[in-house]
From TrEMBL:
Pfam family, any one: Acetyltransf_1
Entry protein name: N-acetyltransferase domain-containing protein
GO molecular function ontology, one term from the record: acyltransferase activity, transferring groups other than amino-acyl groups
Residue ranges constituting the N-acetyltransferase domain according to the UniProt record: 156-303
Species of origin: Streptomyces filamentosus NRRL 15998
Length: 303
C-alpha cells in the first residue's frame, strides 16, 4: 500500500482540499458551505488546512478555522475521511499541530436517521482515537423574519455598563452555578472561576460588534438580574451571551434576556439571529423554544 503522507496545504495547492467530497449527511458542506481558502478570498487558511494522501489522492482532511484577526485557529470544524480510512483521519489529527476543540456539525435529530447517525459516530470515533474526548452536545438555533418576533415582557430594565470589572463580577456570579459545559470545563482548570469569567469576556471583545451593545439587566428594585450580549460573530448577528445570576433564578428571566437580545439585534437591522445552548441546559433550551427559535443543527463538541 502507498505510504500515507500528511501535510498542510499551501496557497498554490489549496484546491486539493476540495478534490474529496464531504459526506452528504454531516459536516460543513452538508449545509451548503463550500471550502474556500484565504488565498482565493475565502475563510480557511491553507496552513490551517491539512490533508492525508495516498499517492495523489486525498483520503482524509481537516480544516481549522479562525477569525480574520486571529494568529492561531479557534476551532476544528471540518473533518472527514474516505470510507475505510478512519485511522488515516485519526492520524491526521494526531500529527497536525493544533490542540483545538472539534465542533462536529450535524442535522437536527441526527440520531433518528441511521445513515446520518453512522456518519456522525464515525467521526466521533476517529476524533476519540486521536485523543479527543466528548465534551457536550449543543442545539444551534436561527431566528429569521419568518419566525414570530417575541414581545418584550417589561419585567426588567437594561443598561449599558462601560466598566469591564463590573461585567466580570456579574460573569463570576453567573458561572458560580452554571449548566454550561464549556464554563464548567474552564472552572475545573487551573484558573477556576476567574478563568471562566475572563474567557467569556475575551469572547465578547473578540466579536466584531460594538462594546456599547452589552447590557446588564435589573429587577424593579434595582438588583442585577443578569447580562445579555447582542453580538456579531464573523458569520453574522448572534446571541452572544445570556446569563442570570443565581439569586435571580426561578423567575424565567433567561427568556426576558433572550427576547431583549433578539429584538435589539432586529432593531439594528439583523435579518437573522443565531443562537446556541447546551442540550443539558433545559431552562435555556425552553427559552429559545418559547421565543420562536427553531433548532437548525446539533453540534457535537470534542476537546
Amino acid at each position: 500500500m502507498t505510504d500515507l503522507v500528511i501535510r498542510a496545504l499551501t496557497p498554490s495547492d489549496a484546491a486539493l482540499f476540495t478534490t474529496f467530497q464531504d459526506s452528504p449527511f454531516v459536516g460543513r458542506a452538508a449545509f451548503g458551505h463550500a471550502y474556500t481558502s484565504t488565498a482565493d478570498g475565502g475563510e480557511y487558511r491553507p496552513d490551517w488546512s491539512w490533508v492525508a494522501l495516498r499517492g495523489d489522492t486525498v483520503i482524509a482532511r481537516a480544516a481549522w478555522w479562525g477569525g480574520p484577526g486571529d494568529t492561531e485557529p479557534v476551532v476544528l470544524n471540518w473533518f472527514d475521511f474516505a470510507d475505510g480510512e478512519a485511522e488515516a483521519g485519526a492520524e491526521l489529527l494526531r500529527r497536525a499541530p493544533f490542540d483545538k476543540e472539534y465542533e462536529l456539525i450535524a442535522p437536527a435529530g441526527w440520531r433518528d436517521d441511521p445513515a446520518v447517525r453512522a456518519a456522525v459516530e464515525e467521526r466521533v470515533a476517529a476524533a476519540t482515537a486521536a485523543g479527543m474526548k466528548p465534551l457536550v452536545e449543543r442545539y444551534r438555533y436561527r431566528w429569521t423574519p419568518g419566525c414570530p418576533l417575541p414581545e418584550r415582557t417589561g419585567r426588567l430594565t437594561y443598561r449599558p455598563e462601560p466598566d469591564d470589572e463590573v461585567i466580570l463580577d456579574v460573569l463570576r456570579r453567573v458561572h458560580s452555578s452554571t449548566l454550561d459545559a464549556h464554563a464548567r470545563k474552564a472552572i475545573e482548570g487551573p484558573g477556576g472561576l476567574e478563568a471562566a469569567a475572563r474567557e467569556e469576556l475575551e469572547f465578547f471583545h473578540w466579536c466584531p460588534s460594538p462594546r456599547e451593545w452589552w447590557r446588564l439587566a435589573y429587577t424593579p428594585d434595582g438588583e442585577v438580574a443578569g447580562i445579555q450580549v447582542p453580538a456579531h460573530n464573523p458569520s453574522g448577528p448572534c446571541v452572544g451571551f445570556i446569563g442570570v445570576v443565581p439569586e435571580a433564578r426561578g423567575h424565567g428571566y433567561g427568556y426576558d434576556l433572550l427576547v431583549e437580545c433578539t429584538r435589539f439585534l432586529v432593531e439594528q437591522g439583523a435579518e437573522f439571529v443565531a443562537g446556541a445552548t447546551d442540550q443539558g441546559n433545559a431552562p435555556m433550551a425552553a427559552a429559545f423554544a418559547r421565543a420562536g427559535y427553531p433548532v437548525i443543527q446539533e453540534w457535537v463538541h470534542l476537546a
